[in-house]
Amino acid sequence: QVQLVESGGGLVQAGGSLRLSCAASGRTFSYYAMGWFRQAPGKEREFVAAISWSGGTTYYPDSVKGRFTISRDNAKNGVYLQMNSLKPEDTAVYYCAANPKGRISSTGYYSASNYNYWGQGTQVTVSS
Fold first, then answer.
1. How many helices (H) and strands (E) does the chain have?
2. Count of CB atoms within 10 A of residue 98's CB?
3. pLDDT over 90 at 81, yes or no
4. Which of 39, 48, 82, 96 is most buried, most CB within 10 Å of its CB?
């Protein structure tokens, strides 16, 4: 069983920055593919970023590319999401997700169905 705990959410003005953290349990964290998703009220869950088990490959949708950066520290069982130039439309609950087998095709990282474990979420609110 993998447990994920997000932190770092909050209220920020448009143009500001936040850094989300996700602490993961498990002795084999270095093999996990990790992702961040978000869900705004009344909307479907949306892919935000993902990182391969090695950290060598990252994935972003066009909506956040150039503003968000995902990273990981396998020694600390942590994955992070640095969010810059935040916009009101970035307001959502942000979720950390894990695929412990780490074997996802390049297009598969974008799909929530390829992640087996999810955190409880952390609220990010961007005011205009």
1. 0, 11
2. 24
3. yes
4. 96
